[in-house]
Design a protein that fits this description.
transmembrane; membrane; transmembrane helix; alpha+beta; globular; three-stranded mixed β-sheet; single chain
């Protein structure tokens, strides 16, 4: 069962698009075009690339937490939702819905968000951003048979970029990352745990299929948009 829990949350074609987008960012950062945007996030270009690369590769890995009872478990399917195609892993003799935590879509964003809150002391504004985005995402989150909870991919990106800019021009970039990733995890996954058992998903991954694409793009686009909108102010990087 352990091997079957590990799988790409989206189809290889869509995953390739994210890889190409990541490659384009590498080129832009190496050309120093985007360097100042990531400086406003509080990390250097190298660390930003490592963060995004870790999220991309980590999307394959899930850490099982528990098993939820399920009457019927779907297997080996591709499910379409709002133009995205999510993978239902091929499983055999499955005990139910395995509730897991995705490394790239949950653990890495949570660690990075915690660092940003502590570094910039954004306790109140980060809480406001997270709660607001969680509310928006929860209203739009949709239970999808075989997958779990899914969210339209660009909702977290647009919502976090706008909200973070309204909360603080100076700290828009870190607020976008925190609000987008944590708000999506809470609003889509954690607040819908009670619905997961009846969806027939062999693996319900927090930060995995249904939300990983939005969280990953939030890490790229929302931070970039907010960073570009922030006032010019050099940041110490590591």
């Amino acid at each position: 069962m352990r091997g079957e829990v590990q799988y790409l949350p989206i189809t290889p074609g869509l995953f390739t698009i994210l890889v190409l987008l990541f490659a384009a960012l590498i080129i832009l950062i190496q050309l120093r075009i985007l360097r100042y945007a990531y400086m406003r996030l509080g990390v250097g270009p190298g660390t930003a690339l490592l963060l995004l690369f870790g999220s991309l590769v980590g999307s394959y890995f899930n850490i099982p937490i528990t098993v939820l009872p399920a009457k019927v478990v779907r297997s080996g399917e591709i499910v379409d939702f709002f133009g995205m195609r999510y993978v239902v892993p091929l499983v055999t003799e499955w005990p139910g819905t395995v509730l897991a935590v995705n490394v790239g879509g949950a653990i890495i964003p949570t660690m990075m968000s915690t660092y940003l809150v502590l570094r910039y002391q954004l306790w109140v504004k980060a809480a406001i951003a997270t709660i607001a985005i969680a509310f928006i995402i929860h209203m739009m989150a949709t239970p999808v048979q075989g997958v779990g909870i899914a969210v339209p991919v660009f909702v977290p990106v647009v919502a976090t970029a706008i909200l973070a800019f309204l909360l603080s021009r100076e700290y828009a970039a870190p607020l976008a990352y925190i609000g987008g990733s944590m708000g999506t995890l809470i609003g889509a996954d954690l607040l819908n745990l009670d619905k997961i058992g009846g969806l027939g998903a062999p693996v319900a991954s927090i930060g995995g299929a249904g939300t990983f694409d939005g969280i990953f793009l939030t890490g790229i686009l929302a931070v970039l948009l907010a960073g570009l909108a922030s006032p010019s102010r050099p940041r110490e990087v590591w």
